[in-house]
Amino acid sequence: MTEIDRSLIGSEFGPYTVEVEKGAIRKFAEAIGDPNPVYRDAAAAQAQGYAGIIAPPTFPVTFYPPEEPVWTRDLDRRRILAGEQHFTYSRPVVAGDVLTCRVIFRDVQEKSGKSGRMEILHQEIRGEDADGKHVFSIARSTVYREAGNELKK
């Protein structure tokens, strides 16, 4: 099974810009059920030493690129399963940030499991601030199952 184009390993998609809005942070915090006031109230965040309302640690998963990267564009969505995610921060994401993001195609591994063969796609999403300084990285793996192992509705 070799459906993901390995010649694209090392490719980057982007840059694209994300403007972090306090309303989006609040809605995300509500959606994940986290009542921490630093995600809703600027005074509470500042009392904790932050510049303003900060985003929950998993918030950058909402920073979608404007279009699908070329290495995933033609994949059959019924065969995709979410894998592992790992977040790294240089500082918190703060309401008002304007971040430049890139998606990087890191690697593909081929494996076999009980449900058949699969490819594990490894990507990284990196976000930098207006000064070009690293703010966050998300290392993400996605499982792409072989044909015939589509997810049933």
TrEMBL record:
Domain FAS1-like dehydratase span(s) in chain numbering: 7-136
Pfam families, per database record: FAS1_DH_region (PF13452)
SUPFAM superfamilies listed in its UniProt record: Thioesterase/thiol ester dehydrase-isomerase
Protein name: FAS1-like dehydratase domain-containing protein
